[in-house]
Structure formats: C-alpha cells, structure tokens
Fold this sequence. Notes:
Layout: H1 2-52, E1 56-66, E2 71-82, E3 87-102, E4 108-113, E5 118-123, E6 129-135, H2 140-149, E7 154-167, E8 173-181, E9 185-187, H3 189-202, H4 213-228
Antiparallel strand pairs: 1-2, 2-6, 3-4, 3-7, 5-6, 7-8, 8-9
Amino acid sequence: MREKLIFFRGLLERNKIFFEVLVASTLTFMGVYVSIQANTIATNQTKIMEQENTPKIEIRQTQLYNDSTKIYDITKWLVFNHNSKISNFDIEKEISYLNLIKRGSYLEINLPLRSYLNLGGTLTGESEGLIFDFDNRYTGYNEYLTRQKIWNYGHIQPISFVELSYENVLEKKEKRYYQITPRIREINKTSWDSLITDWSNKSQNAIYIDSNIDENIERIKTSAKKISQ
C-alpha cells in the first residue's frame, strides 16, 4: 500500500511539472497571438484612415464659345477634389508639346511648346468640390488657324501635362502628375521625370503657339524634315 502511495505521489509531481509547463506555454502562445491580432487591427485601422484622408483629384475639360472668333476655341480645365479636404493647392509646372502626324507617312513628332497653359488660373477658395480652374491662354484660335494652314502637310494637336501639389489634412505636401490633353489621365513620377528630360533636350526648338503662325508652320516643317532624314 505504501509503495502504491509513493508511486502515485511521484506520478502527480511529474504531471504537475508537465501541466505547469503546458500552462506557461499556452499563456505565452496566447500572448503572442493577441499581440499579432492587435497589430493587424492597428495596421488595418491605419490603412482605413489613410484611405479616408486621401484626396481624390478629378480634372474635367470643357470648351467655351468665343463670340469674337465664332468658334469653340477656349479650353478650360476644372479641378475637383473629393473625399478629403486639402489646402495650398497649386499647379507648379506644365509640359506641353505640339504633336504633328505627317500625311502620307508614319512620321510623328512632338515639338515643345512654351507657356501654352495659363497656370495662374482661379482658386475657388474651397477645399472640396471645384477648387481650381485654368485655361489655354485663349490660344485656341491660333491653333485653329495653324491646323487649317498645315492641313495638307499634316495634322497637329497639343499634348499637355501638369504637376500639381497640395497639403493633405495632415499638412503633408503631396504631388500628383496628369496628362490633360488630348485625354485626361494620371501618370506616375517616373513618366513625369522622363517627360522633363525629353522636353529639355528639345527645348531649343520650342515654339509659342500664339506667335506668328506662318513662322511656326515653317519651323514645324523644318523640324519634320530633320527628323525624317
């Protein structure tokens, strides 16, 4: 009988150590699990907060009728902000080209344009909804005349990009990049930097669309000949 009691006592002591180790391990595992879940929840909350406070910029284009020229030659771009308030909105830079597609060939060139857009624009004073508008400096009539005069040689069309900036609700400055003509789409910084380099390399041939039309046409044709050689 005494031997049985000694046996059971030893068994209980060994089991006690086992259960203590098991309980300690379980508690440790639960602590790690709870910590991971808390971090996951915090990360998800941060992502949700960022999404809720990320401005959604929308740019729309419209054309206005000009009574003096009798055509729709005034192009305006309207900038809207949705989702979160912003401040200190600005359009910092433009990159513009005059694209030429020569008739009877696959030749296409982009001549750099100077001061094509009126980046001064008009701030509405709002931080949401319509916040800014700007235009093409009313050069549409010259574009129209140039297009008519060079029609037999090729088709021309302006292509423009802008860099805009603003401060979000956390007062952090952000920059975005958009193509605004002939279509509107957001582009990444790598594409923007590539455009900056390309425009700079071609800047010696840059033209003003609102300068002498016949001189511009001759420069367009001369540049096309150089590229085709």
